[in-house]
Structures are given as structure tokens and as C-alpha cells.
Design brief:
31 strands; alpha+beta; Beta-lactamase; single chain; 21 helices; Penicillin-binding protein 2a (Domain 2); 4 domains; 712 residues; seven-stranded mixed β-sheet
Length: 712
């Protein structure tokens, strides 16, 4: 009986414990069911989150364009390949969507992506053995072109899939590279690293969106997926003040000089002195941002490389004297040498021989160091000259809207430094500082702030978000002083003694000043020997009312013994300035070649046959390419009355277009052709056309796919 009672008590105790536990658990379940929460977490939201898939909608980076809307930088799609290797992904055994034949897949994909078939096979098999969902193919499987993607798709291999990824593309290759800059993918996002790409990265980047939906355990979207889309906002479009045609002319000219003279550095800027707009700017060495490997120079030397400017500084010394009322062009002085102090004697550039007693005007024309030394030391005084140097802002940045500007330094401690600054020795300045100061002379005494950005535009609404305006940053001299300085600078080019004679243009008058600056030697003092100088020219045209001002500097060119020191700089200035003014439709103010001027316009070709159009354009000095064998003209790449740059290619599309041989064409010309023919084009690498996917003579139709491989 005792045993039974004990057993009964134990049973009651256990039953009570289990009853309590059951009530606790049941209560907990009821509470969870009623509240839908566990440990403060909402189970409905938790479940929804677990079965919700989301991915980013990447914003397209904004385009960079020239002043006329020509594309200079934009996003181009590239592709990465991956393979689904698990059988679980294929619900229909007759139509598998996973890799079913490892050997065949590896052997057929390998040659297209430039990989080893054995390596691909090993990756696929390892993925299967490790029970993975998918595998990728490393570097070889990423960055694929549209052409490669299409070739792989034609193989119709089960399990092969692609992801699309944007890559920044620069259609003109080496073209204003240190202005436009470079953007590359960094941590999954295209990010600006240099130039405008860096300066306006936030505006160009845009804002990514997101899409989310609910799916089952296999990743398949549910029937009611509760899909939510947050649209991406693409980056703003940035229009530059650069003119693509003038920039192209400058790039081609610098390339010729670079090949012929092998200089250490070259910088050139073309600017509108009335507005501050930079029309063209380039340097050598430069680089192709599509292939940024082994880059010699990332810096924009036009704004970040201060150097002693040499005699171009004399125009500002003379302008200061005119403004102070201390300039008498007919007054005589003794040229040759000038003793500054007990230890320093300044010499004229002809080894101190000089030209005996000459007028101050002739001294300027001959680029006499002694002339400007007299002006500073005996006419206006060192303190007053320093005030003018600061009025011309030689002691500070210009404020150009580019990253990396470095100002020069006014070296003005000792008497010798104060005098040598008058002819550009000791004191340093950048090309952008020199050309900015020159706008005061070219623009009635008003010095304008240089700018490279024209406007920023919203890509969705085409509304102008920001518009740059002309900004006057100072009035260092009066209009009267500017006008007189222009006349003096014009005589530097036109006079019998003028050092600027090599810079004379055929159709336009030029006002300017040459510079031959000594280069500091690593061992102290200055370098010597032919070519061991910084040769420069700061010129404006037309001389009476300049529409363009241009600064050119060439450092240590390799010159033949018989060549003029001015050969590289004058070639750049004359070729670019003359053609740029014609292209801008500026009326010539010199009439010696009026007949030639009319030949530089595109004639009226409306209604002409193919043969007649070709002849008319060739007579205008153009390199003509005819697309097709049709007798009637469908389109041309040039318009009536358009200004012609010498050697410019003109494309005539007939009513029966066929594919031409484009070997050797520049990327700009190929893109122009594809636009005329409305082709679906893909470009590979950069430089000049090497291979084309459509054979010469093939009949062309709208939206035909054309892949072109380029090579430097």
C-alpha cells in the first residue's frame, strides 16, 4: 500500500509538472500567434524578409560632352559569364538550365574568352563536386564585349548565364585626357579618380535604385511577389566648354610635334578671352583613359606645373609701365647689359652684345632683357611692379574648375630677383596663370576667370541644373592700356626686328610675345646647349579685337642644328589658331588669301549626284569616302557652308550603302560612320581601326551589328 501511494504521488507530481509545462508552451504559442512576435522580432516581417530577394538598380553614370553635345565619356556595357552547375535548378529534365556536359562547355567557351579549357573544366567539375549552385571563370570571364557575349549565346549551352556591368568608355582615346580625367570601377561602383570625373563625381554618379520581390526556396518569384521598385536616378550630363573639333586639331598637332621633336613636355591652351571659356587644352605626355597602363604623367601640366615663363612675362611688364604713364616707345636706352648690383649683371639674349642704343619699342620687339630691367628699376620701381604682378594674380590660383591647380611663386626677395622677374626668370607661373593674365590685355583690361565646365543638365528633364557664367576677377589695367599693349604686341610679330615673325598667320593679324626660358640645372645655375630651354608663345588673334588667346610651351625639344628654336611652338600655334578661327567663322582681317578662304567652306551640295558631290567636296580640300555604289546621295557627314579644317574626312552615304574598309580610321570617324548608317556598333580597345566584323563590300541595313577592334 505504501508503495502504491508513493507511485501515485510521483505520478501526480510528474503530471503536474508536465501540465504546467504544457500550459506554459501552449500559452507561449498562443501569445506568439496573437502577437506575431518573438524576442521583439515580428515573425511576419522576419518571414517576409527571409523569402524576399533584392538587388540594386545601378544608376548610369552621367555623360561628359563637349560644348556642342559630342560625347566624350559615357558608360558602355560589359558582361561577366557564370555557369549554373546544380541539377536542382532544372525543373524540366528535357530542357535543363544547368551545365549538362562539362567537357563540351569548357572546350567551346575557352577560345571565345581567351581561357584554358582545362581550367574551365576544373572549375565546373569542382562546383558540381562541392554541390555549389554556380561557378564563375575568374578574370577571363569578366569584362566581356557584346561580340563575345553573342558568340557564346549562339552556342546555346545550357547553364551558361551572364551579368551585365557598366564600364567607363572614352570614344576619342587620347583626347583632353587630363581634363576629362579617368573613372574606374572601385568597390563595385564607377568612381572618378582624376579630372572632371573626380571633380564632379557626385553629380555624375547619380543615385542607385532597388528592386525587391518574394521568392520560394529555389529562388523562383512567387505568383504574388509583392514586388517593390525604387527607380535609379542617372547621373547628370556635364557639358564642357571644349570644342571637339578644335580639341582634335590641337591633339593631332601636339602628337606631330611630340613624334618629330621628342620634347620633355608640351602644354597648350586655347581660350576665349571675353568669356574665360577653355576651347581646347592638352599636354604631352598624355594617356588613353581606356588603357591607363604605364602612364608617364597623370598631372594636367597646364594647371599644375609652374615653370619660369621667360620673355612672355615682358608683355605684363610693359603693360604695367603703360598704365603708370611711364612708357615712351621712342625713348632710347643702351642695350646689351645692365648692372643690377655689385654682383649681378643682366644681359640681352645675344650674349650681351645688344643692339647699341635703341628705342624701348624696338627693345620690346627684339625681346630685350635690358629694356624691361630699365622699366622696373628706373621707371616704375620694384614695389609698384610687385603690385601689378599681384593685380595680374601671379601670386594665386586662377580658380579654374579643375582639380589639382598649383599656383606659381613670385620670387621677390633680392634686387636681382625683382629685376629678373620682369623678363620671367626666377618667378614661376603655370600656363593657365599666363593665359588668364593675358585676358586683361585681350579684353579691354578685364581679366576673366577661366572655366572648363559649361553647364550641368538633368538627364531625365533636360533641365539645366547649373550654368557657368563669365566672371571678371580683376581689372589690372585700363582699356586704353590694353589697346596700346595689343599694338605693341602686334609689332612683335610684324616688325622687321620682331622675334614673333615665325608666328604670323596667313589670314589673321596676331599680337603676341615669345619666350625662351632657361631651365634650372640640378647642379645649380641654368642648363645650356641648343634645345635646353622652355620655348613658349602667348598670342592673340585677330590683333585688334582678339577672339582667341593661345599659350604654347615646349620643353627641351630635340632640334637640328639648322632649325629655329621657334619651330615646334610656331607649328602648334599657327596650325591650331588659323584653323580654329576659320572654323569659328571669324572674319579674316588680312586679305592676301581671300580666294583660299572661300575654298574652306562646304559648298552647296543639295540635290547633287554621288559623283558630283564627291568632286565638290574634294575641291573644298576634304578627304572624301563614298559609302556604297548608288548614284544618289542619302546622307553626308558635312553640312552646307560648314567650315572645313584641312584634311577633314567627309563621308558620303549613297542610297545603296555597303561596308567600306575602315582600317586606319580614328574612333571618332568610325563612330560618325555608324551614326550616319544607324548601325549597332561596339568598339574594342582604342586608337585606330584594325579589324571590322562586317567585311568590305557587304550590303548594309539599319541596326546591323558592327564590332570594330582598335589598336594604338
Amino acid at each position: 500500500m505504501k508503495k502504491n501511494k508513493t507511485t501515485q504521488k510521483m505520478a501526480i507530481t510528474l503530471l503536474s509538472i508536465f501540465s504546467v509545462l504544457f500550459l506554459v508552451l501552449a500559452g507561449r504559442f498562443l501569445f506568439i500567434q496573437a502577437s506575431g512576435e518573438v524576442a521583439g522580432n515580428n515573425l511576419i516581417e522576419y518571414a517576409a524578409d527571409k523569402r524576399t530577394d533584392a538587388y540594386k538598380l545601378e544608376a548610369t553614370r552621367g555623360k561628359i560632352l563637349d560644348r556642342n553635345g559630342m560625347e566624350l565619356a559615357y558608360d558602355q556595357p560589359t558582361y561577366s559569364i557564370y555557369a549554373i552547375v546544380t541539377e536542382k535548378y532544372s525543373t524540366d529534365k528535357d530542357n535543363p538550365i544547368h551545365v549538362t556536359d562539362v567537357d563540351k562547355t569548357a572546350e567551346e567557351i575557352a577560345p571565345i574568352i581567351g581561357a584554358n579549357a582545362a581550367d574551365i573544366k576544373e572549375r565546373l567539375q569542382k562546383g558540381i563536386d562541392d554541390d555549389l549552385w554556380q561557378v564563375e571563370f575568374g578574370a577571363a570571364g569578366s569584362g566581356l564585349s557584346q561580340d563575345q557575349k553573342k558568340k557564346i549565346e549562339k552556342l546555346d549551352l545550357p547553364g551558361i548565364q551572364f551579368t551585365e556591368e557598366a564600364k567607363r568608355f572614352y570614344p576619342n582615346g587620347t583626347f583632353a585626357s587630363q581634363i576629362i580625367g579617368l573613372a574606374q570601377r572601385k568597390d563595385g561602383v564607377i568612381t572618378g579618380l582624376t579630372g572632371i570625373e573626380q571633380q564632379l563625381n557626385d553629380q555624375l554618379a547619380g543615385k542607385d535604385g532597388k528592386i525587391s520581390y518574394e521568392r520560394d526556396g529555389y529562388g523562383t518569384k512567387l505568383i504574388n511577389p509583392n514586388e517593390q521598385v525604387q527607380a535609379a536616378h542617372d547621373g547628370d550630363k556635364v557639358y564642357l566648354t571644349i570644342d571637339q573639333k578644335i580639341q582634335t586639331l590641337l591633339e593631332d598637332t601636339l602628337t606631330q610635334v611630340d613624334k618629330k621633336y621628342n620634347p620633355k613636355k608640351v602644354s597648350a591652351i586655347v581660350m576665349n578671352p571675353k568669356t574665360g571659356e577653355i576651347v581646347a587644352m592638352s599636354n604631352r605626355p598624355s594617356y588613353d583613359p581606356n588603357n591607363p597602363e604605364n602612364v608617364e604623367n597623370w598631372y594636367n601640366d597646364s594647371i599644375s606645373n609652374p615653370m619660369e615663363p621667360g620673355s612672355t612675362m615682358k608683355m605684363f611688364t610693359v603693360a604695367s609701365a603703360i598704365e603708370e604713364g611711364k612708357w615712351n616707345p621712342d625713348e632710347k636706352y643702351m642695350s646689351g647689359t645692365y648692372k643690377v648690383d655689385s654682383t649681378t649683371t643682366i644681359s640681352d639674349w645675344n650674349s650681351g652684345k645688344g643692339w647699341d642704343s635703341i628705342s624701348y619699342l624696338e627693345g620690346m620687339q627684339r625681346s630685350s632683357n635690358v629694356m624691361v630691367a630699365n622699366i622696373v628699376d628706373k621707371k616704375i620701381g620694384e614695389d609698384t611692379f610687385l603690385e601689378y604682378l599681384k593685380k595680374f594674380n601671379f601670386d594665386q590660383k586662377t580658380g579654374i574648375d579643375l582639380p589639382g591647380e598649383v599656383p606659381g611663386t613670385i620670387l621677390y626677395n633680392y634686387q636681382s630677383e625683382k629685376i629678373s622677374t620682369s623678363f620671367g626668370q626666377g618667378t614661376t607661373a603655370t600656363p593657365i596663370q599666363m593665359i588668364t593674365a593675358a585676358t586683361a590685355i585681350a579684353n579691354d583690361g578685364k581679366m576673366v576667370t577661366p572655366h572648363i565646365i559649361d553647364k550641368i543638365v538633368d538627364p531625365d528633364t533636360d533641365k539645366v541644373v547649373e550654368q557657368k557664367k563669365t566672371e571678371v576677377q580683376g581689372n589690372p589695367i585700363s582699356k586704353e592700356t590694353a589697346d596700346e599693349t595689343l599694338k605693341i604686341l602686334e609689332s612683335v610679330v610684324t616688325s622687321e626686328h620682331g622675334t614673333g615673325k615665325p608666328y604670323k598667320l596667313d589670314d589673321y593679324s596676331v599680337a603676341g610675345k615669345t619666350g625662351t626660358a632657361q631651365i634650372p640645372s640640378p647642379n645649380g645655375g641654368y642648363m645650356s646647349g641648343k634645345g635646353n630651354y622652355l620655348f613658349s608663345f602667348l598670342g592673340m588673334a585677330p590683333a585688334d579685337d582678339p577672339e582667341l588667346v593661345m599659350y604654347v610651351s615646349v620643353l627641351q625639344p630635340e632640334l637640328e642644328a639648322s632649325e629655329l628654336d621657334s619651330a615646334p611652338t610656331s607649328f602648334i600655334f599657327k596650325n591650331v589658331m588659323e584653323n580654329a578661327l576659320h572654323y569659328m567663322d571669324i572674319s579674316p582681317d588680312q586679305t592676301s588669301n581671300q580666294e583660299d578662304i572661300t575654298e574652306k567652306r562646304v559648298p552647296n551640295i543639295d540635290g547633287m549626284s554621288t559623283r558630283a558631290t564627291k568632286k565638290a567636296l574634294e575641291n573644298a580640300g576634304m578627304d572624301v569616302v563614298v559609302i556604297g555604289n548608288g548614284e544618289d546621295v542619302a546622307k553626308t557627314s558635312v553640312d552646307d557652308e560648314e567650315k572645313v579644317i584641312e584634311g577633314q574626312r567627309a563621308i558620303i552615304v549613297t542610297d545603296q550603302p555597303t561596308m567600306p574598309d575602315i582600317t586606319g580610321w580614328s574612333m571618332r570617324e568610325v563612330l560618325e560612320l555608324s551614326e550616319l548608317l544607324e548601325l549597332d556598333i561596339e568598339t574594342i580597345d582604342s586608337g585606330y581601326a584594325k579589324l571590322q566584323s562586317i567585311k568590305k563590300g557587304t550590303k548594309l541595313n539599319k541596326n546591323d551589328y558592327l564590332a570594330v577592334e582598335f589598336s594604338t
